[in-house]
Amino acid sequence: MVSRKSNIKFFKKFEALTLEELIKLRSAHEKLLQNENDFPQTIKSIEKINFHKEKEYNEQRELSNKWHIENLSPLINEKYKLNSALKQFRLGLISINNIFGKSIFYENNYYKQDAEKIIKNLKSIELLLNSKYEQNPYKHIPIPNYIPYPIGINKIKTFRFKGVSCKVNFEELDLLLWSKLIISKKEELKHKEKKLLTLKAKVASNNIETRKIASTYKRKYPLYVQLEILDRCPYCSSKLEDYKPVLEHIFPVSMGGKSTESNLVWICNTCNMKKSSLTLSQFTKKYKISRKRIENKLDLLNKIY
Ligand SMILES: [Zn+2]
Questions:
Q1: The overall pTM is greater than 0.90
Q2: Would you tell me how many other CB atoms lie within 10 Å of the CB of residue 303?
Q3: From ligand 1's centre to the CA of 274, what distance in Å?
Q4: Alpha carbon of 105 to ligand 1 centroid (Å)
Q5: What CATH architecture is 221-300?
Q6: Alpha-carbon gap, residue 94 to 107, rounded angstroms
């Protein structure tokens, strides 16, 4: 049966949600239930039929049990007695487990005849019981085919509460479950947020780290080394020394570019401001510069781009 009652008592049990939140939840819950009221008549009649079917099924089962007690009990009692009687031969028997098997082993032939007499009786009782079982008029009670609830009732619905989206099955609609769902969803969101923050912090510290390494490269790879090969800005060809040269990451730090010699190049201050955190191809496209010309110069300087 579908329970459609909400219980205000549950409110006290949840510390993760405030009372105010839970009252809102309850009213949202009731609103949803009101929508379900489009079906009340259908639900009621189905419940009635299913209840009747179940009642009939239980009655049949009860009759079957009653028939068993009346018709089989004497035989079952007899079987039990014989089994107990067999126990006294246990010491003399190696195996008595398989009464209906072909071979029964005896340690001592002295008991053989008495034991076999009991086993014979047991066999005939077993056969009798089997044939009696077959006579049971309530042998096959079909499991009732209950009428399913109309489509829409069992449908999983998405419910939004305080910006948290939860999927709820109508049959499971109770505040206890909903509160749990919302609490776990909130935890999940919190966890995700925390993870994102850690990731951001990591990226930030990586950037700082990369720039730190870059400053050591300024010392390791001083300007004059590049000037000996090429005295022009590799991007705009202006005379480097005239435009406050800056050490640039060809592939930007913000995208994971490393402070390696092959990724660092001295360029003019103007180009540096224009390129900022663009990649080489973004930069050349944006300012309509010949990429081929830049590449030739970077090749000359042994850079990787
Ligand atoms: Zn330049």
A1: no
A2: 19
A3: 9
A4: 104
A5: Orthogonal Bundle (1.10)
A6: 6
